[in-house]
Amino acid sequence: MSTSAPNTQQMHFAIRYLTRYRYDVDVVDNINALRIRPATGGRQQVDDFTVRLTPEVRQHRHEDYFGTDVIEFEVTRPHRELVIDAHAHVTTEPQPEPPTADWSELAAPAYREAGAEFLIQTDDASGHPLLTELQAEIAGAPSPLDAALLASEVIPDRLEYRKGATYVDSTLADVLDVRAGVCQDFVHLGLNLLRAQGIAARYVSGYLYTRSAEDADQSGDGAASVEVDTHAWIEALLPSAGAEPRWVSVDPTNRGLTGESHVKIGHGRYYADVPPIKGIYRGTATTELEARVTMTHTEPVG
Which domains does the chain have, with CATH numbers? Predict the structure, then answer.
């Protein structure tokens, strides 16, 4: 039996997601849903994944409506600390060449069906002068692919990436008013710009390895590690003449198509569909949060 040569463009990552909540008094009935497990499919394969919880409780795993892996758990007994310690090994590959087709393909019934709810637009910034200006600029792109790539360029051109400029619940109008935000805000704007042109687009949550092996700190075993934040980018459904439309990833924070350094967790219509952790507890405690994601560029597992 013949075997294929290894893909030299593959990247292999060890990812650790560590979150620690400290409460100043006891809390109970601490119910949480985690969306932190990298996805398997397409250009990405999860080689292994584990989650350790403290206090130790039973985990319940399922896929949500959009196919994202969800881990749910509940701590019923009194506690003053909750630790979520997840480890994954992931293999990624570059994106294939994106499909090209003209604007007329967006009207095909097959495209409209495939795009479904990812075509639905919101109007929380309807009539905002900057939004109107940007939508007109995207409308001038020669093709849907060009529109997606143009959106990934004009957003960082016109908005400043600045932590603290917005909050998780900031509206698109808030972002446009301050002309600044973070990756989540850039993606929400990009979704609006593409959907305004009839291009189905969805919000992607994941991790991004932001250093090369050459300039990262080297550990004793030769692995290059870096601490990162959870990241976000866009998947646009692009038509292909004579073939099925295909989801193509663009990153408006980093200007262009995503690559093998992007590790996808899941997708939804907006951030609210794929938050890394969402929970509630019973009690009057004040919470102190410590969160850290470490990505290490490694050799293949096994």
Answer: 11-92+276-298 (2.60.40.2250), 103-273 (3.10.620.30)
